[in-house]
């Protein structure tokens, strides 16, 4: 059951990554230059309170040095790449090991 859930989440993340890649490609073609949406830009698009609330939560629950060098740089990663990477990892982790067939050769 857990393997199914992880695989389903992975497939949803992969689908979201491909959708973000298509949106980036469409914006790049329409604008005439390369446009890649970062996680930070996507958070700001979702709502004005998403980014400050994330910053407030990280500073409240983690040490202060985690926000500036780590989380700020992670938020600059392209959204499509992050979703594709996380989705691929979930699908790989949920993959069932192949069954051994026959007798072991010794």
From TrEMBL:
Protein's UniProt name: PetM family of cytochrome b6f complex subunit 7
Keywords: Membrane, Transmembrane, Transmembrane helix
Membrane-spanning residues: 75-94
Lineage: Bacteria, Pseudomonadati, Pseudomonadota, Alphaproteobacteria, Hyphomicrobiales
